[in-house]
Amino acid sequence: MPRNVNIWIVLSGLNGFIAVAAAAIGAHILVQHLSPEALDLFRMGAIFHLVHALALIAVGVLGRLAEPARFKIVNLCGMGFQLGIIFFSGSIYWLALFGAGSLGPLHFVTPIGGGCLLVGWAAMSYAGWTVTDDYQRRN
User: Which residue of 23, 26, 50, 101 shows the fewest CB atoms closer than 10 Å?
Assistant: First the structure.
């Protein structure tokens, strides 16, 4: 991958696209097939998905501002958000479509995804503090 490609902004765009498509599918197709409770659950998955797709833009910006020594914390932030999107939103979509208990032995995926999102936000806070401080010292 070329050095100037910012993977977090690329993933932000892809996730934003998928989240908007999921919301549209929920509003125009699934509304006819799911119970109101399942549809609310699906919408919640789409909202979390879109919010964290947008958060990945900030990760990309922090990555551009970061000194090489800070790349690990920026990448931890991005990985937390991306894994959280996959595990949390993905499992919420699944539960809305297939019902409670349908994850079977993978029932732990949803809280693990939520934990990944929390790690992403904690890392974002730390990265925002340290990376912007480094940036201000350089300029």
Answer: 101
Range of the domain at 40: 7-138
1 inside domain: no
pTM (two decimals): 0.92
Is residue 2 in some structural domain?
Answer: no
Return the HEC string of the chain.
Answer: CCCCCCHHHHHHHHHHHHHHHHHHHHHHCHHHCCCHHHHHHHHHHHHHHHHHHHHHHHHHHHHHHCCHHHHHHHHHHHHHHHHHHHHHHHHHHHHHHHCCCCCHHHCCHHHHHHHHHHHHHHHHHHHHHHHHHHHHHHC
- Could you report the per-residue pLDDT of 7-33, keeping only the tens digit for each? 999 999 999 999 999 999 999 999 999
